[in-house]
Amino acid sequence: MKNPAGRIPSAAAASARKRRRARPPAGGPYQLSLVDLAAKPAAAPSGGADGAAAGSVPQAPPEQAAGRSGGRRETAESIAARQREISVSEFFIKNRHLLGFDNPQKALLTAVKEAVDNSLDACEEAGILPTLKVEIRQLAEDRFRIAVEDNGPGIVKAQIPKIFGKLLYGSKFHILKQARGQQGIGISAAGMYGLLTTGKSLAVTSRTGPGKPAHYYEIQINTRNNTPQVIKDSAVEWEPEHGTRVEIELLGTYKKGRRSVDDYIRQTAIANPHCEIWYAPPNGGEVLHYPRATDSLPPEPRAIKPHPYGVELGMLIRMLKETRARQLKAALQLDFSRVSPRVAEEICRAAQLSENANPHTIAAHEAERLYRAINSVKIMGPPTNCLSPIGERQILAGLQKEIRASFYTALTRPPAVYRGNPFQVEVGLAYGGDLPGDELADLLRFANRVPLQYQQSACAITKAVLSIDWRKYGLAQSKGALPAGPVVLFVHIASAWVPFTSESKEAIAAYPEIVRELRLALQDAGRRLSAHIRAHRRAAEEQKKRSYIEKYIPHISIALREILGFPAQTEAELLANLKIVLERSRARERAQEESDG
Length: 597
Prior knowledge:
Layout: H1 11-22, H2 29-39, H3 49-55, H4 62-68, H5 76-82, H6 88-94, H7 104-125, E1 131-140, E2 143-150, H8 160-165, H9 186-198, E3 202-207, E4 214-222, E5 227-236, E6 243-251, H10 261-271, E7 276-280, E8 288-290, H11 313-322, H12 328-335, H13 341-351, H14 364-376, H15 392-402, E9 407-412, E10 416-418, E11 421-431, E12 442-447, E13 450-452, H16 460-466, E14 476-477, E15 483-484, E16 487-495, H17 512-564, H18 568-596
Parallel strand pairs: 1-7, 12-16
Antiparallel strand pairs: 1-2, 2-6, 3-4, 3-6, 4-5, 7-8, 9-11, 10-11, 11-16, 12-13, 14-15
């Protein structure tokens, strides 16, 4: 065959065309052949036609050829050599914003809050009325040393390094009862932040009783393996008979107003009227004293077992493997709350499992049947003695102690349940008095008696407040905003496990059961406020009408005397009778208004 130019193609040209036709598309097996070719030394070009054709293709350097073909820059062995365990301390150093240390002002507040929470929990667990001393000393423009001292039971010497120098170490995580701390992170994270920003150790002084030595520690946290490093350990002279003092040096910013340490201390005093607090702000400010409003400790919460409705499938499988019981029916009764023998039998029947089955040998598919059976059987709600609500009287005492208003009300809702966890909602309200009338309502949020200062818009409490039309209750309100007027809203959630949205414990997750209870409590408080506002308005109107009566009745009696010509004595009797008639008329009007309202 001839080409258009009339020349007979050579064997080399025909071979090159065949190779081009057989070349696979880019990204196919041809790329793999390039890797192989790049690994081989290039052959010396021959003088023949085939050699000239082959030699006319330039050879790329091996590394470029590998890069174009997607060659591996790492091997499985080199990647495996870099793998290592990440300690929880290292994780939180890089993600300290999760713990509330994302800016200097918030870091100062968070460190104080964690120390105060620990002190209050320790005092209440020991049955001691808390007396706290909070000091903040400013060492430089952005450097502070905080100290929190309590009169609690103190800490056993061997436990001090672990409590303050190890993350995720505590006594409350595995116990279902109301407490301020939950995760065993807070105070050790505050010490870690201080070490990270100033290089200074966390200092602890503690004594467990009169006649016993006071121990002083300087502790740092080893972030590589999440273990405490004791820098100093000595016995010291310390005046208090028992208690603990924690000192942390850190970088921070001190400001007054909302979301400040000052505001946190004030709100803590409101929600904990049984607590006495001495607070020394920085810059040599006057020491503030918040006296206790009651000498009664809150009721002690009791630990409860998990409720069946709050246990997920994976947790159920683990509990069956770890139970001490040898029979399934006994395991259900032993490890769960509110499971009686009758309920345990009903669960086993619904799951089609023998009551005498060994729980340690339950297979995964059998555990799934058991899980579905649990949720299909009616089980009584969990016990509520694990909760310790503030109480209506104590809420009123706290509000009246710190807020000057003309009207106060408080209420505590009956306990409810979300995901098998009991919780209780409390609401307090203060209105009028010295409160500003041209500003938005002051919303005070609390969880287990702890003020929540940040992430207000992400909190279930705020969402519940915004979902209510406060204009029905006599307050002004713009769309999507808090009500306006001279009002303070106090909202508290007590729970054995508060569903915080993050480890920093700043906002509560909006579970439907929680939002529902919040709305019911707020609506009840709103109705009480509305009744007060209407009564106040009626009293003002009555006073206004009374002034009219007192002003014009004498003129009426004078005009009648001139028209009818009766003596002055009769005029006085007429004046008294007119006042009585008008008062009776006003009483009938008030009764009609109350029946209509």
